[in-house]
Amino acid sequence: MDQRDASVPTISRLGPFRASVATFGALIGSGFRRYATYRQATLAGTFTNVVFGFLRCYVLLAVAAGAVGNTPAGYSSEQLATYVWVGQGLLSVIGIWGWTELADRIRTGDIAADLLRPIPPVTAYLAADLGRAGYGLLTRFGPPLLVGAIFFPLHVPSRWQTFPLFALSILLAVIICFGCKYLVNATAYWLQDARGPIMLWTLGSGVLGGLYFPLRLLPDEVVAVLWLCTPMPSLLQAPLDVIAERDGPVTQLGLVALQVVWAVAILALAGLVQRRAERRLVVQGG
Amino acid sequence: MGELRAYVALGAAQIRSAASYRTSFLVELFGNVGATVFDVLTVLVLFRATPAVGGFTLREAVVIVGFSSAGFALADLLVGNVDRLKTYVRAGTLDAVLVRPLPALPQLLLMDLPIRKTLRVVFGFVVLGVAIAANDVDWTVSRVLLVLLTPLAAGVFFGSIFVLSASLAFWWVDSGEIGSAFTYGGRDFTSYPISVYDSWFRNLFAYALGFGFIAYHPALTLLGRDDPLGLPAWTGFLSPLAALGAATVAAVVWRSGIRHYRSTGS
Fold first, then answer.
1. Under 8 Å between Cβ of B167 and B194
2. Residue B115: predicted pLDDT
3. Contacts of A207 in chain B (CB under 8 A)
4. Residues 6 or more apart from B93 whose CB is under 8 A from it?
5. Neighbours of B4 (CB within 10 A)
């Protein structure tokens, strides 16, 4: 007779560790398939990314043309173009905007169903988000980069380690971004309506994440505070600086290391907030 | 008279619903200003790195930003929420709007009147005012007229773009973010001197779509600067014409869209 404790939830006959890996994988897959159904929206979103790519690229190149030595904040024109176009490609991979699912479920009371499931909500939603990011990487990342490469001279990375570091940096950025979105959505446990915090997040993440302009154009002290005290630059600025090779190999590695710290911290905080919220949750609806 | 009362009732319901989540409303009110503040800040940050962008100093460039953000904020307050149309079409909620004895567009706008965006309009006009004060404008009657007309024309123009890109949902429900390329993209395009763009891109947005007439050319005329691209000074006065053209196209497309609408039936 299997002596396994009946309270350990398993959905397969594998061992507990392999079972949780399998569950996590299944959730990633379902997240991927969910977004894969919106094919036309994918096309429309890509078009929009490309238009904004042109707008931002022209403006930053005009800034470079007028700047001292044509290298504003130490970026060459090619690096700026890479910065803009890889940024447009990464935008929907990282997914900084538009996730209000958790807040909506808290407001409507559907969150009760999530809490009944044998997987902690943070884990389940993280898996779904990784699936979403994977779909984004396959469909949304390439086209803007291709258009950028056709119309502008881009910076081609010269160091071999840039590519694995970039891949790792994207994964970390997705995790950090998910953690931040989770925390922003979780304010609905206390506020019921999280539209306000979500709006502040939408605003702050774009500007402070480095989407509109490279953060190094800001005064040095501001940049240092942003990197060390907020997770924002780890969302876009970090992977973009890695691929544009703005810094030497050591700083490049340091950016990714800082992302690791933020990823761990944000996920831990999300878990903590979720546990606190469960203790005081009054389920809405009826 | 009855129609007006119905609109007032719709609007008042929006105000009451906004007032019931007061904290969130206040955050949204300031968050919305934040969006425009960040747009202006972006311009300031870019000019930290360089004395001139596309041949314009910061002082001159801010006039362009002022026209653009005043016009955009005005349009976004009054018609910006029409971009929810795709949600209504998808869910079939538009049926409820169409069976009522009122025109569909005003109803849709009042169904979610974004009172939270009012502060943004104020900020847009403040930017414009500060920008004009910072420049040494040689005031004439026609320039006063230009300053008064341009933000309104820009508002009508952006409003038409909002309606046009929302109408797309009648034919293509999954149009997703494509409208943003022209609404928010148009705002970004008009925030900078159009001399920064390559000629094909500039011709497309500025002249084929008309975005050049609502901020860049009026700013040139106001500052008394020659157009580096060679168009005459009176081009700056064409914003009402561009607005009228855009509004006409938007009205036609909207009407044919409404006629084209088939409910999802769910």
1. no
2. 80
3. 38, 41-42
4. B87
5. 8
**In the predicted structure, residue B202 carries a pLDDT above the cut 50:** yes
Dist. CA A181–CA A109, nearest whole Å: 19
Smallest CA-to-CA distance from B169 within B108, B98, B107, B258 is with B258
pLDDT of B242-253, one tens digit each?
999 999 999 999
To probe the interface with B, which of A49, A54, A55, A215 has the most B CB atoms within 10 Å?
A55
Residue A40: closest C-alpha in chain B:
B174
Is B63 within 8 Å of A230 (Cβ atoms)? no
Nearest CB neighbour to A217, from listed B24, B25, B46: B46
pTM across the whole model: 0.90
B147 closest CA partner among B169, B125, B162: B125
Nearest to A256, CA basis, from A145, A175, A151:
A175
Q: Give the Cα separation of B150 and B85 in Å (integer).
A: 28
* Amino acid identity, position A284: Q
Q: Using beta carbons and an 8 Å cutoff, which residues of B are at the interface with A?
A: 21, 23-28, 31-32, 34-35, 38, 41-42, 45-46, 48-54, 172, 174-178, 180-182, 185, 188-189, 192, 196-198, 201
Cα angle vertex B261, ends B255, B262, to 5°? 160
Residue A5 confidence (pLDDT) above 70: no
Tokens of B167: 């109408």
Q: How far is CA A280 from the centre of its chain?
A: 29
Q: What number is the ipTM of this complex?
A: 0.91
A13 CA: distance to closest CA in chain B (Å): 41
The residue behind tokens 């973010």 is B177
Q: How far apart are the first and last CA of chain B?
A: 35
pLDDT for the residue numbered A1: 43
Contacts of A4 (CB under 8 A, 6+ apart): A10
Identify which of A52, A82, A76 has the alpha carbon closest to the alpha carbon of residue A64.
Answer: A76
Residue B213 and residue A204: Cα distance in Å, rounded?
Answer: 31
Phi, psi of B214 (to 5 degrees): -100, -10
Disruptive mutation site among B41, B43, B84, B174 for chain A (greatest number of A CBs within 10 Å):
B174
- Give the tens place of pLDDT for each residue, A184-207: 999 988 888 788 788 889 888 888
The answer for B122, left when phi > 0, alpha when psi is -120 to 50, beta otherwise, is alpha
**pLDDT per position as a tens digit, A16-51:** 788 788 888 999 999 899 888 888 888 889 999 999
pLDDT of A12 reads 55
CB contact under 8 A, B35 and A203: yes
